[in-house]
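Take a look at the protein record below with the fold in mind.
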Amino acid sequence: MKHYLQIPLLFLLCLMLPPSDLYAQYYFGKNKVRYTDFDWQRMTTPHFHIYFYPEERRIAEIGAKPAEESYTLLERKLTYTLHRKFQMLLDIFSIEFS
């Protein structure tokens, strides 16, 4: 084929190929987030807000004591006091977040 025909044919071939942006627009929003209602409970200690499921209450109570002890130790070592409470999330059933 002659050289002067190759360039227009190549150009027409490129015009016939669908742009990849069209595929992105088609698939956008297909993976919608499904919200579920979580039954979170909150336990408040002097320095923490601990969020947990109702069936994890005992574990939250057990974990609150070392958290407070660690906070006191770090506060003394760093000579710094935070003015807000930490928010802790206790989640044994982490499959919901995967």
Q: What stands out?
A: The beta strands are 41-44, 48-52, 86-89.
